[in-house]
Amino acid sequence: MTLNSGPLCSFGIIADVQYGDIDERYNFHKTRLRNYRKSLVLLERAIRSWTSEGVDSVLQLGDIIDGLNKVHNASRNALSSVTDVIKLFPGPVYHTWGNHELYNFTQEELRGSDLFSGNMPQCACPEGKSYYSFNLHRKLKVVVLNCYEISMLGLPKHSEEYKQAENLILQNNPNESLNNPDGLQGTNRRFVKLNGLVSDSQLKWLKETLQKATNDEENVIIMGHVPICEHSAESMFLCLNHTEIMEAISTYSSCVICYFAGHFHEGGSYVDSSGILHVTFAGTIESQEMDAYATAYLYSDHLAIRGKGSYSSYETKLKFPYDRI
Fold first, then answer.
1. What is the per-residue pLDDT across 208-244, written as a single tens digit (0 to 9) for each?
2. Are strands 256-261 and 219-223 parallel, antiparallel or unpaired?
3. Cα separations (Å) of 275 from 5, 111, 207, 235?
4. CATH number of the domain at 9-317, please?
5. Whole-structure pTM value
6. β-strands 93-95, 57-60 pairing
């Protein structure tokens, strides 16, 4: 019997805020309304709720500002607006980057911005890289991927990373617009410019981090903007090398409990054959409700994710339970 049945720690989760001081409009397929100004209100409501509850930290899953800000020369103003709201939260906020950040800024610029969390003292980040890890509790590690380390977004066109992504997409997508998946079948729909992939060196780092977590009996959450499980999101929104990432985390399924992503605004979830819960969180930008976030609670034997408004709720067992006797 434990001395205390309450949560060991708690953290907020939010994805695809995509703020901009822009009039509302429908998405590309004219199926979902995006309210760019309201999304900042929803972010602030989430921050104030987490602060009031005493939540320990926040995971921000990318696309916190919208790409249209670049068209309106408002990228820095938009970033300043969301940063001002985030600073209302008294604890740490951990960010990953999505395609919309990279429509506005280069990856080098983002490394020098408030949206780079790898330089926090509690984070372990390889020098010069933008992926990192940290512990929310001695029994819970979070591993943050850069799903656009190799991509056509936020990188110089002459760089090897840009060329590698471009060649891969061109080999698989014959459409004039490389953001158009028309005619592509199944998971090949992912070969669009709005996706990227992790490098071999990032995969190596991921495996080494998971091996150490296994040795230390730490439960692990992996987060990246882009989904990796084809059953948790529409195929168009999968990471370009999702199979390699899936293989890596399956090898270390004895420690990995969840993979968190955004990117696909309708959201979705799936428990894979290794028992890992994949959650694609709904896009706050398209929420028609007055709340759009989740709060997660780490207990001694499970993680409970409680959705608010347009966000769903989930639970999953820990691989390494915590004995507090």
1. 999 999 999 999 999 999 999 999 999 999 999 999 9
2. parallel
3. 25, 34, 18, 21
4. 3.60.21.10
5. 0.96
6. parallel
